[in-house]
Amino acid sequence: MFDYLHEPPSTVTVFLDGKPLSVAADDTVAAALLTAGVTEFCSSPRHGSPRGPYCMIGNCYGCLVEIDGMPYRQACLTIVADGMRVRRMIGDEAHS
Ligand code: FES
User: What is the CATH number of domain 11-95?
Assistant: First the structure.
């Protein structure tokens, strides 16, 4: 769906649900995951339907993920860091 126009000058490794991903060092978490083909970041608290980034500017809250153990972080406003652990908030865990 998404790809880089040019190879990124440097990369870092983030872990998505425990799986390593090599991503551009200056990407947001949302951009990095979308480039990796991930579109489902969390689920709707009311119906459990899948949610993903929409606005990419911090307004829609469709990109909520757990980052380094902290839940409800906006992936579109967070820059990746080497070794960062990202967990998608899907299912009952997203509502606790
Ligand atoms: S994509 Fe809308 S708040 Fe992150």
Answer: 3.10.20.740
